[in-house]
Amino acid sequence: MLLQQIINGLAQGSIYALVGIGFALIFGVLGLVHFAHGEVYMLGAFFGFMLISVFHLGVVPSLLIAISASAIVGILVERLVFKPLRKAPDVAPMVCTLGLSVVLQNIAMLAWGSDTKSLPDVISGTVIPFFSANISISQILIFAISLVLMLVLQYILYRSKLGRGIRATAQNKDAAALMGVNINKVISATFALGSGLGGAAGVLVGLYYNAFYPTMGFMAGLKAFVATVLGGLTSVPGAVLGGLVLGVAENLGAAYISSGYRDLIAFVILILVLLIKPSGFFGRNLQGKV
Amino acid sequence: MLLEVKGITKKFGGLTAVDNFSVEIEKGTITGLIGPNGAGKTTVFNLLTGIYPVTSGSIVLDEQEITNNPSHVITQKGLTRTFQNIKLFNNMTVFDNVRIGHHCRGSSNLLGALFRPPSTRREEEEMSERTMSLLADVGLADRKDELASNLSYGMQRKLEIARALASEPKILLLDEPAAGMNPQETKELTQFISNLKDKGLTILLIEHDMKLVMNICKKVVVLDHGAKIAEGVPQEIQNNSAVIEAYLGKGAAKCSQ
Amino acid sequence: MNNIFKNKYLLGALFAGLLVLPFAAGDYLLRVIIVAGIYVILALSLNLVTGYTGQFCLGWAAFYGIGAYTSALLAINLKLSFWIGLPVAGIMAALFGIALGIPTMRLKDIYLAITTLGFGEIIRLILLNWSDLTRGSMGLPGIPAPSIFGISLDNNYFYYYFMLVLVLIVILAMERIIDSRLGRALSAIREDELAAKSMGINTTRYKITAFAVGAFFAGIAGSFHAHYSSFIDPQSFSFSESTIILAMVVLGGMASIKGSVMGAIILTLLPEALRDFSEYRMIVFGLIMMGVMLIRPQGIWGQTKPCTASIRKIMFKAKGGAIKDAVGG
Questions:
Q1: What CATH number did the domain enclosing A50 receive?
Q2: Which domain holds residue A110?
Q3: Which of A18, C21, C270, C307 is buried deepest, with most CB atoms within 10 A?
Q4: Residues of A in contact with C311 (CB under 8 A)
């Protein structure tokens, strides 16, 4: 029923939100879309999978390690792809990260096989009744961890020197540099934060659906990007709101309209946003200077 | 009157960039639009060329209403502009840049491109001829096959003007054409613009080079904070205290009295 | 290297070589070359939109698929001949190209890229889910081969020569379009859309025209593919396929006809040569895309450096809060 769909939607939406924050951070600081961000999410999921199934670590330690590993992957991508292309035309990082996403997907396929993997009974299947619906343990896990991660991000962005540097760079890179902000460090940190969150989302989603497969990053990345656009491309709270809205819309749509076309909903939203209010929820309302 | 600008206003949210600006441009004259930095001069150009919609007011070109028309329609109707920060087609040759200017005076499209009927071929020949003649006028004929981005700054400015002329405008809007030019180049440019006027072209130009403005403009309009503060022949403007105040501050205005 | 095409003798030799090729090449190689021909047309069609007009399109396989399914369904359900299906497939794809062009005309760069990606996915999802029409994931088998006056033309020689004719027609059409008032308008839009508008070019109309023409050619390629392979399914028109076509354009060089032709040939022949390493095929495509961008963004034969006016510059030019959004205007 309705409440259950909304709860499911919020859980899925939190995942989109975490990945979407990464897009928003990177776009805010660099003005570029990271096409391989979905693959960072996928790698995070697989890191988590390996840590739990092979090394038999608990959920929380695996999550923390996966986040760190994803953050490192993010920094590597930044160094290898974005940094050399800083002066290049916009097409270049776009096509390059597109290529990278293909490479990462296929390496994952070679490394882990293209079949879907699952973990034996990591999270208990108990559900807790909530008014007329049920919330599962894994959903609680998602809500809790997403909240914690977002609060941590909030703290970093607004209470730390690094965060001030990130926000300053996002507003005006040249001015920030003149004020002594280490732009390279800021950019690396942004990628680390965004990718770490993406990796966390991957682990959470893998546990939630108990499904790990190499192409899981593609759709999720696309949809998370739609969430970010919905939120206003450069806005972190926007990405969160956008993710939640998208998750709920998808679930309601799949339940009441058709489940086969579930994935379509994200794209319909994308087109509507771009046609009606391209700046999304919280995007800057910008005018031109010729 | 070739161009009648009637009380155009442009607001960006709470900011009024252009405030009830009106001017009448007589055919075959050169009018100067001056004012301190940030006065809104380029914004006026953007309103006239349809890049921004006006918040209110109207613009009439040769008795045709062009307010809020799309830019390409305005160019077709006879108003063309150049840009403050030269916007050439960098990866195209000098020749092609000017030839593009002719686009709105041609008509062949997909079918013409694919099948090349005589009418299309004739049109292409005419375009090429006109392009060569314009290039000769600005002294760029010998560099026609070079990439636009390889030209020097002064030549790029000339190229942009040639491209604008290729659209056969009734009125040409020049946005700081002398910016970055040395005195010699400025002198040549002044002569060039004057010649264009002699051939019947109407010109409205934004400039900071006062010598150029006072030299060739029949009328000068002064803008400050989006509003017109003075209008008249160059002599009047030079002695106008409001104008001096706008540029140099109250103290300077007092001095001139 | 453009001189090759102006040197009559070399051109003649090339043409003669192409004419006798089927008799020299074995059956397998011939099939590979026919497939290469399909990709040449696809790469050229994408190049018109992305390379020449500068509209970044990531869902190109959608038009390929629309053409394929249109032609296949007309042949299977309505028993229409291939000779009717081929142009109709192109027209159908062109209509979808216009349908995509209209709402996206105000979008630029990243927004456009993602939207076209989304469009590609939407088409794939519809092909997959509308089982009543398309048989969904089971695909359409038994697409009849072309025939003339009742004689079946189902042999590699016919396919090869017909493909050759199609490729030559498409190359000729592209060359004519590029070197025309229309083509110059498209290049102007790529270089500086605002300046193009200010020079009297109706950028909306021309962008849609580019999409329509490009999609038309892609649809033709799709129709050929459907009747040649006699089986199609939605999986053949996925994002991977779009990526492959893009890789060909990128490698060969945007805004270069020769580049697209060579890019398509190289990236069709290369995986065949490395048949033993077929699992690495997509990785190689990805690495090529990355490599080209890192080393030489304009591709091997591309002349133009894609313009640097970019969202980044726009975003970081914060002067009194006035910056232009990447969308609109």
A1: 1.10.3470
A2: 2-114+125-276
A3: A18
A4: 31-32, 90
